[in-house]
Design a protein that fits this description.
about 350 residues, 9 strands
């Protein structure tokens, strides 16, 4: 592991647990962000998803403002804004406004996928397929809108000009690694669900990275599923909610986050299914001691600069505790490698 401290952050989808209202879910996201700030997390990112009854982070920029307003120092941003759904001008205006309201605290992570099904993607933006192909150009357009060089252009995002909002490229394939390296931007890989190309993508990014005005050295981030509890048994029990939602996602039976149950033989068998096993490959579940070993090994293998922890479980209290224990793990690992 590097002697440079590894940053640790949160990715939140504002997932609705069964029996919870949308308002309660949003309040829980804010409370988690406030606790994450207290626990030393670097950033709190919200993902963009649409047409999902159990995911509340649809109007991502609005939620980012809500969380930024209720916190003081933690960086708040998108993990990410799905650019094919949006006009680059509108994205620049939204995030320029956020950057002006919360100086040096807003991140703009950008992804190429629609974050929904094809029919909904078409309803959001009829030319979304074309927009996916013009992703590199649209990133350049956003950078232009944030630049003072755009002052004399006919089309301007006046609220964005000169505002400091760092861009991050999100990816789940090697395409994004080439692009991020070429543009000299930090790179976040969605290994919390897209596990197959992680090492290929990291290798490409490091080999092809070109320093830019935004970034002198490569900077990599990786998503991991983290569920930490007092004991391995308790962590396994509360992880059943995550397994059920993934099984539902893969089988087309989507539902709200279910309360945890005992890890039954049937659920264990379903969790071993190749599709589930592959999707949750980088899921570290257990007591502090167990997860610490798993995380140390992952960091040693990937050499990433930052971990983005995703903790999708039923109870808001269990989730906060898991993030607290994970922060302790990261602080211990950083102290040991110093």
């Amino acid at each position: 592991m590097s002697t440079t401290p590894i940053a640790y952050s949160v990715l939140d989808l504002a997932i609705l647990s069964k029996g919870s209202t949308l308002q309660e879910t949003f309040k829980n996201s804010l409370k988690l962000a406030q606790k994450a700030e207290e626990f030393g997390y670097t950033r709190f990112w919200l993902a963009e998803h649409h047409n999902s009854a159990y995911i509340g982070s649809s109007a991502t920029a609005v939620l980012i403002g809500y969380v930024a307003e209720g916190t003081k120092t933690i960086r708040v941003g998108s993990g990410g804004i799905m650019l094919p759904n949006h006009s680059p001008l509108i994205v620049a205006e939204q995030f320029g406004t956020l950057g002006a309201l919360y100086p040096n605290r807003i991140d703009l992570g950008l992804g190429r996928a629609p974050g929904t099904d094809q029919e909904t993607a078409h309803a959001i933006r009829s030319d979304h397929r074309q927009a996916a192909f013009t992703f590199p150009e649209e990133i350049s357009e956003i950078q232009k809108y944030f630049s003072f060089d755009n002052l004399d252009a006919k089309v301007r995002a006046t609220v964005a000009e000169g505002i400091e909002v760092p861009l991050y490229i999100l990816g789940s394939s090697t395409d994004s690694a080439h692009l991020s390296a070429k543009k000299g931007l930090p790179y976040a890989f969605a290994s919390h669900f897209a596990t197959a190309k992680l090492f290929d993508a990291l290798k490409i990014y490091h080999e092809e990275f070109m320093p830019s005005e935004y970034l002198a050295q490569p900077y990599t981030m990786a998503g991991v599923n983290i569920i930490v509890a007092d004991t391995d048994e308790e962590a396994e029990r509360i992880s059943t909610s995550l397994y059920k939602i993934i099984i539902g996602l893969l089988s087309g039976k989507r539902d709200f986050m279910q309360p945890p149950t005992a890890m039954t033989p049937e659920l264990k068998e379903m969790a071993k299914h190749p599709a589930v096993d592959q999707m949750l490959k980088y899921s570290f579940i257990g007591s502090k001691a167990t997860v610490k070993k798993q995380v140390a090994e992952f960091l040693n293998q990937t050499k990433v600069d930052e971990l983005i922890a995703v903790t999708n479980i039923y109870s808001a209290e269990d989730r906060i505790k898991s993030y607290q224990l994970f922060a302790e793990i990261m602080q211990e690992l950083n102290a040991e490698s110093a």
